[in-house]
């Protein structure tokens, strides 16, 4: 899988939603989502790995680095979303098939007549 980590996946998801963001703003959004402080060296290392892989582009705006998804990054986020949606939908379908009819519909099936 191209993400190789949840952090990479989540960074790309944030950028997919937001468009371009400065590095610090992106870090703040991820920290809010995780409700934990992220080590800056680790965070920027993750961004660099995504840039090196061709999923993010970095440009300089004044003194700030600004990050955005490349076309390849957008494509990967969308394919991951489709894959995840298929997993969730198939799990829901499987769960429905495994439930007794009464739980699925709220209706009781008629009892079979004993011969």
From TrEMBL:
Give the span(s) annotated as Disordered.
89-115
* SUPFAM superfamilies associated with the record: Winged helix' DNA-binding domain
Q: Where is the composition biased (Basic and acidic residues)?
A: 89-105
Could you identify this protein by its name? Predicted transcriptional regulator
